[in-house]
Request: fold
Amino acid sequence: MASNKPQEAKLSDSKEVQLKAYEKQVKDNISSMIENFTEIIKQAKIADGTQVKQTTEGEQVHYEVSVRAANVVRAGESLMKLVSDLKQFLILNDFSSISASTVTSRVKYKNSAEENDKKLLALRDEIASELFLLEDEFFNSAVK
Reply:
C-alpha cells in the first residue's frame, strides 16, 4: 500500500502540471484574441490625406485586419481544441468518478444476483414440492 502512495502523488503532480499548462494555454489564447481584436478596432479610423495615400493605407489596413482576424480565428480554434483536450483529460483521469461508478455497478449487479438466487431457490423449492406431490400421486395410484 505504501508503494502506491508515491506513484499516486506522481500521478497527481503530473495532472497538476498538465492542468497548469492548459490554464496557461487558455490565458495565452484569450490574451491573443483580445490583443488582435483591439488592433482591429484601432484600424477603424478615419484618415485625412490624398487619394493615393488613402488607397495605399487602405490596402495596408485591409491586410493587417485580415492577418489579425486570422489570428483571432486561430486563437479561437486553439481554445476549442483545448476544450476538447480538457474533456478528454477529465474522462481519462477522473479515477474517483470511474471508481464510484464501478462500485455502484458492482453493488447493483451483486444485489441483482442475490435477488435472482432467491428467486431460483424459491422456484427450486416449488418445483421440488410439486415433484414430490406428483411422485406421491404416481406411486399411490392404482395403475402400476
Summary: The chain has two domains: 1-93, 96-144. Residues 1-93 form one domain. The chain is about 90% helix and 0% strand.
